[in-house]
Amino acid sequence: MKFIEELVVEEFLPTFRSMLAEALRERGLTQSEVAEHLGISQSAVSKYVHGEVERNDRLLGDRRLRELVERLAEGLASGEMSRVQALVEAEVFVRRLERDGLLAQLHEEEMPGLAEYGDDRFAIHDPESTVRAAEEVLASLRRGVRILENTDDFPGLIPAVGSNLVECLPDADGIEDVAAVPGRILDLEGTTAVPADPEFGVSEHVASVLLAARAGGSDARAALNVRYDAEIVEALTDAGYTAVEFDAEGDLEPAIADALAESPDADVLYQTGGFGVEPIVYVLATDGPTAARVVREL
């Protein structure tokens, strides 16, 4: 595991400081003055100026970095720029390199798995970024699955087709935006069998129910299916949840939309079966752990 901040410290900072130290010395500043501007010791300045610090050749060749160094050196040497102003400019530049510049490229080379997140893969510090949202969903689902694994009676609630716990990204518009347990959660001789860690795009049915509910006006981000039993629905309603039935033999999205039109705040959907269709109860929730805790209390 390699954090992009490590690249800032190990690659960017020595290269940037050495370039700026050289540029300031070229403008007639003493080692003491350079040390004061950079906030480092004079001996460190000497190492930078005399090439005793390893530098990243790709950063050295970056045109934007060279331009930044020249601008900061000129401003600091002339007194037109304060150290705080220089720091702010450098910080902004570093964040840009982290998002879509050379630091992002270096990070991808260190952590190739980040490439799967496409153009948003390096917006890690942005709370709205795809990479951060996706990892939060997966972490949330893992917590939810652990709750189910530690619920002794859960295997008795698993339907013949298996259960699944799903959670989606905030702006999900397709199955690929919904994470779930691959292969479903099964009852294996009275124990909860979870075949693998959650992944995106591996649930078709429960994910489709969640997406249909969201299309029908629900703000739920997660869903968990269990076997249907009138007593289960009654227990959920007695616990304060709103349950609504939908037609199992109709098209899923309009069937759920019709059900939610009558009960927009429903957090339990159920269908009592049909030709070749097993009756199922779906618990809707804000996240995976919440859905798991609802079922745990049954």
Automatic annotation (TrEMBL):
Domain HTH cro/C1-type: 20-54
Short name of any one Pfam family annotated for the protein: ThiN
SUPFAM superfamilies reported in the protein's UniProt record: AraD/HMP-PK domain-like (SSF53639), lambda repressor-like DNA-binding domains (SSF47413)
Superkingdom as given in the UniProt entry: Archaea
Classification via InterPro entries: Aldolase_II/adducin_N_sf, Cro/C1-type_HTH, Lambda_DNA-bd_dom_sf, ThiN
Protein name: Thiamine-phosphate synthase family protein
